[in-house]
Amino acid sequence: MSARDPAEAVEVLNLVLKFFGDGERWVRGSLSDRRGKRCLVGALDFVTSHHGMNSNAAEQYLADEISAAGDCNDARGDCARFRAGLRRALCGGPHRVSEAVLRRDSLSDFNDGCEDFAKLRTLILQARATAVNDADAGPAPGRGFDIELDERVMA
Description:
With 155 residues, the protein is mainly α. It has one domain. Helices cover 61% and strands 0% of the residues. It has six helices and no strands. The protein has helices at 6-20, 40-51, 56-69, 75-92, 99-113, 117-137. Helix 1 (6-20) packs across helix 3 (56-69), helix 3 crosses helix 5 (99-113) and helix 3 packs across helix 6. The longest helix has 21 residues, at 117-137. The two termini are 33 Å apart.
C-alpha cells in the first residue's frame, strides 16, 4: 500500500461530513440521484474534485475501518463476501484490477449496506479519528520543509 497523507485524509473526511450534513444528502444504490444526493464514493469524488484534492488517503482510511469492523452478519453480508471473493479472483487472474478500484467497490458495498446514515457517519468519524492520530504521530509524508509565514525562501 502506498504512503498516505493523514492530514489530507482528515481534510477530505471533514469535507465529506460537511457535504452529508445530517444525512439529507446521502443516497444508496447509485453514485448520485441527480438532485444533489450522493453515496460515499460519489461524495468523495464531488468534494475532492471541487476542492482540487486527492481522495486516495481518505479512501484507504475508510477501507481500513471497514476491514477492522468486518460486520457481515446479514444477507447483504453474504453478497459482500461473494463480491469480495470475486474481486480476489480477479486480482490473481489475467485481468488485473487496481487496488483503488477494489477499495472503491468495498466503500460502495458498505454504503449500500448501511440501514441508515448514522452507520455511515460512524465509519467516517472512526476513519477520521485514525487519520488524526496518525497525523499527530509524525510529519506528513513528502513535507520536508517547515517554513514560517514571515520567512523568505530562495530557490
